User: Fold this.
Amino acid sequence: MELNLNDLTKKFGPVTAVNHFSGKMTHGIYGLLGVNGAGKTTLMRMLCTLLEPDFGKITLDGEDIFQMGGSYRKILGYLPQDFGYYPDFTVKDYLMYIGALKGLRPAVAKKRVGILMEKTGLTKVSGKKMKKLSGGMKRRAGIAQAMLNDPKILVLDEPTAGLDPNERIRFRNLISELAAERVVLLSTHIVSDVEYIANEIWLMKDGGIVLEGTVRQLLMSMPETVWTCFADPAMVPMLVHKYKVSNIKSEPDQVELKIISQAKPVEDAVPVQASLEDVFLYYFDEKAGDGSGLL
Ligand SMILES: Nc1ncnc2c1ncn2[C@@H]1O[C@H](COP(=O)(O)OP(=O)(O)OP(=O)(O)O)[C@@H](O)[C@H]1O
Assistant:
């Protein structure tokens, strides 16, 4: 399978939400990483045929997805950022209802709902009303509804938003498990959501891709060095002003800083391995200024 996003552009009045975006997906998890307003949701809505691009094309194995219509939607699963659910429905009834909307025969829907509730850990709460579920459980129901038609393409818009760290890890593992034999596009602004599970990461800024590749490739692409050093607390404001500081940790008498800089920032600074968070900060921090990521 090959999904091609070819030179996509989408404008809302004067705002260019997606700007000549191109990318190719063949298998595994693609992590769409960007700050708020980068254009992630707009891109995903186009991929789900909910929005038509003003310019550019999306093709699945060479066929325009907007021409494919129902046959494309049949193999698509989508978890929107704010997914609508019926608060008074039980989990099971809600999933059965969505199954009916997706055109599944009742016997097939019943079987799929059972399998997915088991897989997503919802079996114990199947009789509970949706409105009584915790944030994490609601998200599980969201992913279960997206998986009802056993989609080949799964689009997840910020699926871990609002989850606590434990739930976030569990959810990450679940997505990883579901990704076998599928293409998954997962958007987030949290680096750790995709750092361990994405086969490829797309860093998105101002509607376009600024960098793409595996975690390793992204780390290798860092044109600057990451340093750690200790400084007197009084020096911290000057260092923060002058450099990109990716971490500050206060000790009793001194402060440990992680600094991204071409040159050694202070005398006793030691170079360390860059993390994906450093790469993210390098490209997205305000000090990147001109949008090219160059200081
Ligand atoms: N329907 C719309 N009408 C007008 N402007 C819109 C519309 N949808 C999105 N935008 C604008 O397009 C830009 C990209 O928005 P989008 O929601 O795609 O970004 P995002 O990366 O998903 O952000 P977030 O992480 O906050 O959800 C923003 O400036 C947003 O205000």
